[in-house]
């Protein structure tokens, strides 16, 4: 368009121009009154549609109301309140993975095990 010396604005639709925008929003929108001030209708109020069952297998669990308390799951023990006990040093407060002496104990036990296997095979 620039090479042919054409006016770019002639290709823009009139809906995107400033004059059309100002013309569309020039009218003042009147505010609505409160719902209590609306005129009463003689027609019946709109009711929600009837509840019909959906096709297919029904849902396994029902939906609980917001004020209904949650049911406790029995039969499953929680780990809350239990203290960890290390299986290597038998101290509380950590497990086998975080044991401070576990690394040295694991190295010595694996070397002893390797020596035991080597002696038994030869």
TrEMBL record:
<feature type="region of interest" description="Disordered">
    <location>
        <begin position="37"/>
        <end position="76"/>
    </location>
</feature>
<protein>
    <submittedName>
        <fullName>Uncharacterized protein</fullName>
    </submittedName>
</protein>
């Amino acid at each position: 368009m620039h090479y042919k010396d054409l006016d770019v604005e002639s290709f823009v639709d009139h809906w995107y121009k400033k004059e059309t925008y100002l013309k569309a929003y020039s009218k003042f929108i009147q505010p609505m009154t409160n719902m209590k001030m609306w005129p009463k209708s003689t027609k019946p109020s709109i009711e929600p549609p009837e509840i019909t069952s959906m096709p297919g297998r029904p849902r396994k669990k029902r939906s609980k109301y917001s004020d209904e308390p949650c049911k406790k799951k029995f039969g499953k023990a929680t780990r809350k309140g239990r203290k960890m006990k290390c299986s290597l040093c038998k101290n509380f407060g950590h497990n086998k993975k975080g044991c401070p002496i576990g690394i040295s104990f694991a190295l010595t036990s694996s070397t002893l095990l390797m020596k035991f296997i080597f002696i038994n095979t030869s």
